[in-house]
Amino acid sequence: MKLDQYGNEISWIPKLNTRDDIPLYQALVQAIQDDINKGILMRGYKMPPQRVLANQLGLNHGTVTRAYKICEEKGLVKGIVGKGTFIAASPGLPISLLTDHKDTDLISLGMAIPLYECNPLIETHIKQVRDSMDYGLTMTYCPPEGHIKHRYVAANWLIKYKINVEAENILITSGTQNALAIILMTLFEKGDRIVVDEYTYTGLISLASYMSVILIPVLGDEQGMDIEDLKSTCKREQPKGIYLMADYHNPTTVTLSVERRKALAKVIEDNNLLLIEDATFSFSLEKKIKPVSAYIPEQSLFIMGTSKAISPAFRISYIAAPSSLVEKLSHGLNNIIWMASPYTSEIVSLLQSTGAYERIEEEKIRLLKERNKRFDEIMTGYDVLPAPTSCYRFLQLPSNYDDVELEYLALEKGVQILSANRFYVGSKPEKPTIRLAVSAPNTLEELEIALNIIKELLDNYRRRKSLYPVL
């Protein structure tokens, strides 16, 4: 361990390439990337503070700051407020979950694709409601929050999810990611804190990073977010909001019990937090459970999407908001997208009001049951939480496994999986874990092929001496 002239400990000093005609900040970025590839900088390693490294290398502080920022954008490092900068849990892994792999034989278990197997059924139902379309309504501009007719249908439809809300308190958005963007841009400011599960939705992670909103992880167990850790985190961090996925949490598949939902609602109420509840995968839960939002409606934003339940083609989601926030969110909608498409909103409303939506949901649940049963049969012996109708499964691996390396090895064998590092908020998770999307393959037979490849890979896994490449 070296000390600089000011007595600061230095555990890593990069070798900069100063011979080539490149700026110093780029040379530092390249040195960091090279040392990750060589295994000198390992996942979770705490980087020297920018000021200390600048002093040691004789560089301007701004040069090191710029290099660290570029490394963060490239996914090589991760800055955690109050703790420092760490080598990322999955350094250099491509951020996009939609593969652009040129091998047409690639089977995806990566992105939780919404069962394209059901598309012919959806097409049939669309054709059946097509003649009932109100073209006079759908071919014109509408208010930012959507036509009141579509919001009224949505309010009635949300009752099955145990959400009672007036039509005037619903805003229609262009998908759940758009809903989250509107909420964060409208109701949060740079530096605000949002409490999340230690594993959480990647779309929120990237969005919060883009908007400089700080995500604060809270420990959890097989029942969900830990109540005592949430209480202490609220006391320590003074967060403004909390993000929850109560049904088939992404990626862990945990579904909160009624008792845990009530306990969470109490802590949220006591700490005056704004709850953002994402119900993206609630459709696949056979027996619907009262959401956390229903216990504290005046402090909650309940988001229900249709992309996973029906089709991503429509890009329709709903925000159920308290009256105090509707106008502000409507202004946010107006500024960001003006309005969601009234044409696709009309189609979704017709599917909801005619019962077609429910029939599509039922068929997807039937197929998910079939796929998850097959998953359980093939992956016997591995540590997986029960999730009989989930779109994905969360598989915990032995401690000597490297889940990031496994993501690369699986891709080499023609299967895309996701290391759970992608979902982790913090420096480095304790256990190696992968998420496998059972809804992604085109057919049950394709799923079986992919799972057998992964099973063989896991059964015969030996950690490589050479590290996977940084992309």
TrEMBL record:
Residue ranges of domain HTH gntR-type in the record: 22-90
A Pfam family it matches: GntR
UniProt xrefs under PROSITE patterns: HTH_GNTR (PS50949)
InterPro entries reported in the protein's UniProt record: Aminotransferase_I/II_large, HTH_trans_reg/aminotransferase, PyrdxlP-dep_Trfase, PyrdxlP-dep_Trfase_major, PyrdxlP-dep_Trfase_small, Tscrpt_reg_HTH_GntR, WH-like_DNA-bd_sf, WH_DNA-bd_sf
Gene3D superfamilies: Aspartate Aminotransferase, domain 1, Type I PLP-dependent aspartate aminotransferase-like (Major domain), Winged helix-like DNA-binding domain superfamily/Winged helix DNA-binding domain
Keywords, comma-separated and alphabetical: Aminotransferase, DNA-binding, Pyridoxal phosphate, Transcription, Transcription regulation, Transferase
GO molecular-function terms, A-Z: DNA binding; DNA-binding transcription factor activity; pyridoxal phosphate binding; transaminase activity
Annotated transmembrane regions: none
Family as reported in the entry's similarity comment: In the C-terminal section; belongs to the class-I pyridoxal-phosphate-dependent aminotransferase family.
Protein name stated in the entry: Transcriptional regulator with HTH domain and aminotransferase domain
Source organism: Desulfosporosinus orientis (strain ATCC 19365 / DSM 765 / NCIMB 8382 / VKM B-1628 / Singapore I)
